[in-house]
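Narrative of accomplishments. A recurring question from our advisory board has been how the design workflow behaves on a single, concrete structure rather than in aggregate. To address it, we present the structure tokens for one chain from the evaluation set, followed by the sequence designed for it. No filtering or post-editing was applied between the two.
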């Protein structure tokens, strides 16, 4: 097989987890086109056959969703109660 000849492994849960963690820490997950490109590069670097195009799209969407949730949770934890109440007031007023 070509994959074995070139030293690539089949995709696994472990390799998906590695790429996902790397992307959350390093990739521009908020730019899906760039994130997809970076994911392909990381799979190549790990010598792992990347997922199909559809599966890669779902993978990048999942990483982006997780990144967004983590970002908003971090922001939420850094805001004071007064600031949150002020934001709620502005949202509910306008």
């Amino acid at each position: 097989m070509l994959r074995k000849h070139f030293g690539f492994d089949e995709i696994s849960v472990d390799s998906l987890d590695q790429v996902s963690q790397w992307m959350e820490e390093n990739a521009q997950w908020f730019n899906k086109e760039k994130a997809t490109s970076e994911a392909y590069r990381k799979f190549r670097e790990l010598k792992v056959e990347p997922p199909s195009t559809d599966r890669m799209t779902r993978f990048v969407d999942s990483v982006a969703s997780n990144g967004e949730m983590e970002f908003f949770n971090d922001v939420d934890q850094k805001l004071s109660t007064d600031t949150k109440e002020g934001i709620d007031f502005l949202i509910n007023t306008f």
